[in-house]
């Protein structure tokens, strides 16, 4: 915890480091009540930093300095200065060696940053600034060094000792201890350092790279999880192959290791050669992990693996450039998942997530550009904007340059910058240089925050056979940025004739038509594109594949949306038309609720969904997506003032109406798919995901009928399913139903069966946290007393408290403010225990401007109570103070 006033760090103040560290030699002596870290740093003056020998200031936090020597000369108290977060001394030559020994306390590190214990194992998390909690160092990504690491620990408790690179020596000591030395031949910034010591088992495999080198692959887990690693291993091999094929990138060490740990602040970490993963992002098998969990494991394994090139070989100059590695790597993992599964389903999932959560962030008090200008605590900037919007920005570059041009650009980027710490500008420059393109204006996507609005109007001239689209763009003000300049918005589009056929597209001035889908680069505040040779009034299909992260406005009628749902050649836009239709229908009903009128469900939505369900030739996963009404969170995001109760009532009423109108169809599709599930062993592949997705959404609609045959089918699915996807859906549906006896029995038997599996218990907590029936807060409070719950484990906090505040909106936003008070209480406790988790948990309180005056007051009061609650971590302080500003 800091006692100094939190400082604001600005991008514009960036300076190259005064000193460099060519070699880093670390020795760890791990004990139960303390650990010793010896560091030998081979350093020199940075020639790029100018003349003279300025004082050397190293980062360090919570370290107890035992000894310090400069070129083998022990330094005394007068030779250096130790402050709360630094150690300063005066070098006497341009090259020198610094030796330090510090004592640290991983056994009591609950922030899970630096070296800490997860259960009985030691592990590390250094990104972004955790290495300074391990030893005194230049803990910044532009200081890249070659590391050797020796780990020593008691042999019986810690038979496995791991670090980055290749093992080069090991030995035993007389006192029951042993040691291993690892050498990483690639220079790297300290944030990619990793160490693991524990009693672990491993699953082994190998991969032969495109140049014929054999790489040993190992996944280390606690012994009870050894049967849940195969899916991650398969995903790793697919990722290695894919990166060779899609980007020409080959793996570079002789060994690649993944370690699963239970206590982890996020999903996983790409440490060089030694990825450390939240166990939830590694472990998956049919009985314990859902289809969604399988896909998440595949995506995260790929993401961390891809970082080996986008992040590790080419790293970030400073943390303002975080999206350089994260945006690009999210884009790469999305391409990979699209190739491995259904591209349209993947796109729909990503866009729904972006529009619900990133758009909300972009409209809230923490809004920042993809490359932020300043921060207090960098941990707060691992955001949806840096990751997901960052990936959209890379995707737009690909859309503008084409796939081939993009690949040329990425080749040049890797060739130019291998082994360097670079900036977003360097990335864009490589894209420009490889294509002879000018992306100057495009780069505003990196510097301007907020979600642009793009409103479109049309004009058809039957006599001239011309059709014009006029685009008007604007972007709302965000903190620190009141005025925005025009973005370059790639609009992929097509035109449909009255039969639903695509019209060949020819712009005024062109000699011939160019395909039926094309990209218009909208780069002015207002701009018109005119198509010629258009012999009937067309219907435009705009922003195909969601070609830019904007809010598109076009005055489609409901009949036009139904037409697009049927005929658009772009799968994404067929889904999008369905979503827009649902939004229009639901918004009408929200208004009816607010005016105290009886709710009326527009039957056109029911009929549109009926035709989806009737057509058995359609991709079942897409039908399931179509049937999923926009979430309450998304309806909140697009509301001016969100009326939580009206949104919930309207959506539930629509679900009821759809359920009763389409009962027979749901029942037919459900039974057919359930029968196949019954007869088919679980397979984690797209077509099986699709079948189960439709089966499960059908079940959730069917249960709204309360018919005994459905309840019996649901209980049967719960009890008999051989996989977690079917079992958990049945449980969730029972929990949200009024069938108390069946619900209680299912919850109890599930908990009894899975009590020793923490990841499955997380799902048990989440399902209950999401129960929207009255009394949600009390249920969550009671569950916090359950023996399987602890605030010390981030997965538990997310599964119960996070799920409640983010997904159970009617209960969390209770009009008396009890939900807000509860969340603030947890944040105050977690602020001391784990600041990163505390600050993430806070997000639902920061969105107070979205709600009515009563709720606004209650939410603000809780933010103020947090601010006054005592010493705040910089993480929590930054989010609370910015959201009250
Ligand atoms: N790079 C890490 C995130 C580290 C977060 C530090 N607070 C995981 C990832 O994006 O791959
Ligand atoms: Zn990443």
TrEMBL record:
Molecular function (Gene Ontology), one example: alanyl aminopeptidase activity
InterPro entries attached to this UniProt entry: Aminopeptidase_N-like_N, Aminopeptidase_N-like_N_sf, PepN_Ig-like_sf, Peptidase_M1, Peptidase_M1_dom, Peptidase_M1_pepN, Peptidase_M1_pepN_C, Peptidase_M1_pepN_C_sf
Domain annotation Peptidase M1 alanyl aminopeptidase Ig-like fold: ranges: 450-554
Domain Peptidase M1 membrane alanine aminopeptidase: 232-445
Top-level taxon of the source organism: Bacteria
Cofactor list: Zn(2+)
Example GO biological process: proteolysis
Function: Aminopeptidase N is involved in the degradation of intracellular peptides generated by protein breakdown during normal growth as well as in response to nutrient starvation.
UniProt-recorded name of the protein: Aminopeptidase N
Organism, as annotated: Stutzerimonas zhaodongensis
Gene: pepN
């Amino acid at each position: 915890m800091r006692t100094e006033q939190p400082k604001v760090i600005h991008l514009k103040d960036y300076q190259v480091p005064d000193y460099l560290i060519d070699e880093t030699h670390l020795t760890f002596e791990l004990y139960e009540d303390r650990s010793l870290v010896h560091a030998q740093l081979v350093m020199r003056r940075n020639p790029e930093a100018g003349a003279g020998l300025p004082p050397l200031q190293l980062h360090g936090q919570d370290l107890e300095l035992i000894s310090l020597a400069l070129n083998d000369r022990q330094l005394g108290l007068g030779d250096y200065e130790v402050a709360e977060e630094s150690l300063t001394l005066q070098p006497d030559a341009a090259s020198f060696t610094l030796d330090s020994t510090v004592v640290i306390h991983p056994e009591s590190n609950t922030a899970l940053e630096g070296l800490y214990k997860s259960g009985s194992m030691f592990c590390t998390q250094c990104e972004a600034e955790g290495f300074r909690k391990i030893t005194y160092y230049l803990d910044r990504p532009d200081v890249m060094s070659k590391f050797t690491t020796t780990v020593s620990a008691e042999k019986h408790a810690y038979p496995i000792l791991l670090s980055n690179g290749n093992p080069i020596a090991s030995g035993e000591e007389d006192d029951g201890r042993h040691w291993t030395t690892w050498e990483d031949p690639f220079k790297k910034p300290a944030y990619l350092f990793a160490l693991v010591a524990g009693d672990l088992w491993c699953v082994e495999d190998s991969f032969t790279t495109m140049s014929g080198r054999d790489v040993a692959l190992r996944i280390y887990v606690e012994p009870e999880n050894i049967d849940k690693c195969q899916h991650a291993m398969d995903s790793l091999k697919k990722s290695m192959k894919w990166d060779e094929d899609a980007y020409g990138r080959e793996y570079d060490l002789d060994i690649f290791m993944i370690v699963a740990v239970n206590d982890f602040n996020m999903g996983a970490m790409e440490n060089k050669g030694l990825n450390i993963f939240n166990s939830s992002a590694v472990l998956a098998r049919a009985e314990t992990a859902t289809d969604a969990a399988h896909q998440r494991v595949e995506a995260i394994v790929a993401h961390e693996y891809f970082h080996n090139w986008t992040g590790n070989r080419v790293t970030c100059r400073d943390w303002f450039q975080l999206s350089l590695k994260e945006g690009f790597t999210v884009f790469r993992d999305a391409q990979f998942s699209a190739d491995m599964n259904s591209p349209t389903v993947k796109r729909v999932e990503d866009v729904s997530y972006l529009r619900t959560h990133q758009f909300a962030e972009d409209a809230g008090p923490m809004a920042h550009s993809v490359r932020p200008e300043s921060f207090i605590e960098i941990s707060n900037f691992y955001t949806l904007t840096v990751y997901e919007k960052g990936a959209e920005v890379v995707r737009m570059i690909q859309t503008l340059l084409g796939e081939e041009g993009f690949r040329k650009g990425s080749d040049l980027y890797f060739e130019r910058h291998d082994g360097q710490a670079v900036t977003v500008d360097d990335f864009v420059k490589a894209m420009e240089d490889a294509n002879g393109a000018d992306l100057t204006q495009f780069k505003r996507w990196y510097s301007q925050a907020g979600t642009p609005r793009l409103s479109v109007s049309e004009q058809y001239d039957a006599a001239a056979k011309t059709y014009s689209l006029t685009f008007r763009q604007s972007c709302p003000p965000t903190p620190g940025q009141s005025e925005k300049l025009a973005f370059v918005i790639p609009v992929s589009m097509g035109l449909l004739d009255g039969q639903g056929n695509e019209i060949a597209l020819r712009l005024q001035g062109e000699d011939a038509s160019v395909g039926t889908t094309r990209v218009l680069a909208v780069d002015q505040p207002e701009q018109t594109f005119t198509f010629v040779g258009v012999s009937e009034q067309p219907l435009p299909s705009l922003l195909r594949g969601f070609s830019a992260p904007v809010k598109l406005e076009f005055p489609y009628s409901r009949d036009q949306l139904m037409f697009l749902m049927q005929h658009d050649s772009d799968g994404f836009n067929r889904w999008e038309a369905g979503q827009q239709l649902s939004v229009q229908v639901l918004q009408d009903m929200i208004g009816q609720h607010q005016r105290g009128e009886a709710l009326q469900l527009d039957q056109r939505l029911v009929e549109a969904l009926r035709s989806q369900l009737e057509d058995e030739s359609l991709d079942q996963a897409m039908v399931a997506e179509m049937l999923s009404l926009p979430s309450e969170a998304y309806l909140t995001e697009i509301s001016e003032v969100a009326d939580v109760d009206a949104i919930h009532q309207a959506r539930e009423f629509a679900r009821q109406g759809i359920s009763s109108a389409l009962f027979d169809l749901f029942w037919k599709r459900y039974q057919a798919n359930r029968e196949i599930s019954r007869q088919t062993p679980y397979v984690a592949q797209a077509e099986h995901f699709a079948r189960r997705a439709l089966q499960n959404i059908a079940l959730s609609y069917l249960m709204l009928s309360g018919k005994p045959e459905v309840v019996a089918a649901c209980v049967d699915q719960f009890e008999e399913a051989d996989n977690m996807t079917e079992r958990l859906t049945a449980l969730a549906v029972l929990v949200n139903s009024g069938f108390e006896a069946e619900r209680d029995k299912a919850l109890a038997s599930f908990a009894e069966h899975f009590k020793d599996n923490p990841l499955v218990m997380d799902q048990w907590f989440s399902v209950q946290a999401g129960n929207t029936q009255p009394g949600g807060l009390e249920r969550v409070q009671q569950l916090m007393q359950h023996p399987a719950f602890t605030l010390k484990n981030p997965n538990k906090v997310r599964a119960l408290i996070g799920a409640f505040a983010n997904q159970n909106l009617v209960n969390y936003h209770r009009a008396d403010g009890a939900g807000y008070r509860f969340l603030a209480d947890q944040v105050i406790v977690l602020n001391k225990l784990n600041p990163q988790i505390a600050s993430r948990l806070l997000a639902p309180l920061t969105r107070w401007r979205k709600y009515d005056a009563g709720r606004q007051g209650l939410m603000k009061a809780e933010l103020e109570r947090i601010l006054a609650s005592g010493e705040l971590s910089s993480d929590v302080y930054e989010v609370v103070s910015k959201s009250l500003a």
